[in-house]
C-alpha cells in the first residue's frame, strides 16, 4: 500500500470516500466524469456501456448558483442514471447537496478521483491510472487501451467538433491560440509546456495523492493540478488516442473554451477576417527562452541577470529565491529543482503577461504567419485551418 495514498485518504479526501457504499466487485480501470446540465448520452460516447470492466464514477452535481432549468435537467440526468442497470456505474449525488459555486467542477472532479483512489487502494480497481473526461467528450475505441507510463500524469491529444460553421471558425482560432502557446513554451524550454484540458487528463493514483488532489475551484482546476504534478514528476503526452470534444458556447465556468467561443463569435461579427483576434507576440517567448537560459546558468554559478529580465522576475518575487539560492542549496541539481518549482506554470504565465508591456499582443494570424518553421510544424494542422480564414 502506498503511504502517500494512505496519508491522502486519511487527511485530504472528501467525505464521500467514507460515506458512500462502494462497489464490491473489481474493475480493470476507472474514469471520472463530472456532470452538470447534461443528458445521459455520454454513457455511449464515453464508451461506458461497451466496457463493463471500466468503472465510471459519475459525479452528478449542481453549483449553488444553478438556474432552475439547469437544475431540473440535472435532476433528470441523476434519475436516469440511478434507474440504469449498468453494473459499472458509481453515481455520486451532489444535487441534493449543491456544490458551492466557487468550488464548482474542481470539487466534482476531486470527489470522483478521491473515490477512485480509495477503490484502487482497496484493490477494487487494478490500474493505478485514473482517467478524467467530461460529459460532452467522445472517446476513441482504443482510449482505454492506450499505453501509460509508470507515474505522473498523461494528457491525451484532443480535437473539437461542431457542425456549426461559425462556431467551427471560432474554435479553430481558439485552438490555434492554445496550441501556439504550448508550442512556444516548448520552444522556450519550459518544463510546463503541455495542454491543460480536464477532459483529456489521466493521473496515476500515487502521484495524485502526492499533490493532494484537485484544487476546489470552479475553473482552472486542470491547470493547477497539472502544475502541481509537473513540480514533482512528469506530465506526459499521449498520441495513442484522441478525445473529441463538443465545441459549444457555455458560461458554466468563468473562463475556458465555452466563454472563449462566445467572445470570439462576437469578434467575428465585427471582423470576419479575424485579423483583430489577438494572441502573443512571439518575442515574448524569445524573452522567456533567454530567461530560462540565464536562470539555468545562475544555478551553476552566480551571475548578473539581464536588467529587463531581472525587473520582470523581481516583480514575481524572485529576489527572495535569488538571495538563498547559493547559500542554502549546495549543488547545481538542487538549485535547478528549486528554480523549476518556483518558476512554475503559473509564474510562467505571469511572466508572459508582464512581458506583454514590452511586446504587446498582436494578431494571431500575423503571429502564426511569422513563426519559425519548427514552431509552425508543432502547431500543425490547427494553424493551417486558421490561416485559410
Overview of the structural elements:
The chain is an alpha/beta fold and 389 residues long. It has two domains: 3-162 and 194-247, Alpha-Beta Complex (Spore Coat Polysaccharide Biosynthesis Protein SpsA, Chain A); 282-355, no CATH class. It contains 17 helices and ten strands. The chain has helices at 3-11, 16-19, 42-45, 68-83, 104-121, 165-188, 205-210, 221-232, 257-270, 282-300, 307-315, 318-328, 332-342, 345-355, 364-369, 373-379, 381-387; strands at residues 29-35, 54-63, 89-99, 129-132, 137-139, 153-161, 201-204, 235-246, 278-279, 362-363. It has an eight-stranded mixed beta sheet with strand order 3-2-1-4-7-6-8-5, with helices on both faces. A two-stranded antiparallel sheet has the order 9-10. The radius of gyration is 22 Å and the shape is globular. The N and C termini lie far apart (54 Å). The relative contact order is 0.12.
What distinguishing features does this structure have?
single chain, two-stranded antiparallel ribbon, 389 residues, eight-stranded mixed sheet, alpha/beta, 16% strand, Spore Coat Polysaccharide Biosynthesis Protein SpsA, Chain A
Amino acid at each position: 500500500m502506498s503511504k502517500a495514498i494512505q496519508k491522502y485518504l486519511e487527511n485530504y479526501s472528501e467525505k464521500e470516500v467514507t460515506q458512500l457504499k462502494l462497489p464490491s466487485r473489481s474493475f480493470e480501470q476507472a474514469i471520472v466524469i463530472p456532470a452538470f446540465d447534461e443528458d445521459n448520452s455520454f454513457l455511449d460516447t464515453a464508451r461506458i456501456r461497451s466496457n463493463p470492466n471500466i468503472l465510471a464514477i459519475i459525479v452528478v452535481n449542481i453549483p449553488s448558483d444553478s438556474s432552475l432549468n439547469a437544475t431540473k435537467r440535472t435532476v433528470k440526468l441523476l434519475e436516469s442514471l440511478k434507474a440504469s442497470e449498468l453494473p459499472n456505474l458509481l453515481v455520486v449525488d451532489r444535487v441534493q447537496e449543491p456544490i458551492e459555486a466557487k468550488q464548482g467542477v474542481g470539487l466534482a472532479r476531486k470527489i470522483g478521483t478521491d473515490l477512485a483512489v480509495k477503490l484502487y487502494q482497496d484493490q477494487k480497481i487494478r490500474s493505478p491510472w485514473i482517467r478524467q473526461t467530461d460529459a460532452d467528450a467522445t472517446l476513441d475505441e482504443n482510449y482505454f487501451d492506450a499505453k501509460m507510463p509508470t507515474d505522473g500524469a498523461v494528457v491525451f491529444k484532443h480535437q473539437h467538433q461542431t457542425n456549426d460553421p461559425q462556431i467551427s471558425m471560432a474554435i479553430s482560432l481558439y485552438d490555434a491560440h492554445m496550441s501556439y502557446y504550448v508550442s512556444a513554451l516548448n520552444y522556450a524550454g519550459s518544463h510546463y509546456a503541455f495542454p491543460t484540458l480536464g477532459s483529456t487528463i489521466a493521473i496515476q493514483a500515487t502521484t495524485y495523492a502526492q499533490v493532494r488532489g484537485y484544487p476546489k475551484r470552479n475553473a482552472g482546476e486542470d491547470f493547477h493540478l497539472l502544475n502541481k504534478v509537473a513540480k514533482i514528476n512528469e506530465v506526459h503526452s499521449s498520441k495513442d488516442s484522441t478525445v473529441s470534444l463538443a465545441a459549444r458556447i457555455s458560461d458554466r465556468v468563468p473562463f475556458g473554451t465555452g466563454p472563449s467561443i462566445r467572445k470570439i463569435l462576437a469578434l467575428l461579427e465585427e471582423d470576419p477576417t479575424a485579423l483583430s483576434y489577438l494572441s502573443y507576440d512571439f518575442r515574448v517567448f524569445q524573452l522567456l527562452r533567454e530567461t530560462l537560459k540565464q536562470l539555468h546558468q545562475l544555478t551553476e554559478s552566480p551571475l548578473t541577470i539581464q536588467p529587463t529580465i531581472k525587473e520582470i522576475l523581481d516583480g514575481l518575487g524572485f529576489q527572495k529565491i535569488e538571495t538563498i539560492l547559493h547559500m542554502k542549496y549546495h549543488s547545481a541539481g538542487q538549485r535547478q529543482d528549486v528554480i523549476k518549482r518556483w518558476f512554475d506554470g503559473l509564474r510562467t504565465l505571469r511572466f508572459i503577461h508582464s512581458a506583454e508591456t514590452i511586446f504587446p499582443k498582436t494578431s494571431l494570424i500575423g503571429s502564426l504567419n511569422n513563426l519559425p518553421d519548427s514552431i509552425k510544424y508543432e502547431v500543425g494542422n490547427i494553424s493551417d485551418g486558421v490561416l485559410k480564414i
